[in-house]
Amino acid sequence: DAMVIQNPRYQVTQFGKPVTLSCSQTLNHNVMYWYQQKSSQAPKLLFHYYDKDFNNEADTPDNFQSRRPNTSFCFLDIRSPGLGDAAMYLCATGGGPLQETQYFGPGTRLLVL
Amino acid sequence: QKEVEQNSGPLSVPEGAIASLNCTYSDRGSQSFFWYRQYSGKSPELIMFIYSNGDKEDGRFTAQLNKASQYVSLLIRDSQPSDSATYLCAVKGAAGNKLTFGGGTRVLVKP
Question: In this complex, is the C-beta atom of B104 within 8 Å of any C-beta atom belonging to chain A?
Fold first, then answer.
């Protein structure tokens, strides 16, 4: 089945220790998104790619970076995680006739100790 | 003022009843509207999308869109305990591919 896959599902890191979250998709969608979601809050868009065109949200901290080496994979790098970065990180792809229908992966829950 | 607003709930409905969820948005140029269901600790799952004014039905779910009044609603008929979740309304604006999410409405279906 075509899908969006995120690894790992749970990630524990130490304060200040870099961490990388990965996302892959078999949907062959051009658009990929990274969201941060904290408990009882709406998903917050961090950045998105349209093909290799990178789009950063204005309020995304510099601590967060992303790479998309090819259509299938996208990575979220957190250079120096703080306690406030503990959250669920959601990857989504954009499909449909206008590539606007978003399909989410299962998410990676990040815990910062 | 938030761009997409939802009542946070919880909306408590008895099993078998109709759950009615509302969402209002501020961007009059918005074109596409989505409803996602999110179980606790899980990722959002697309339920429905709607582009045109009126009703769109899919199984027990009906989405209703009124662009003049800038609201979109979701009806869940014959509610089941498995429908207990947070329902997120998402809106695509006039430009770009980004979605703006509401804060979600938590629904509790009681047996």
Answer: yes
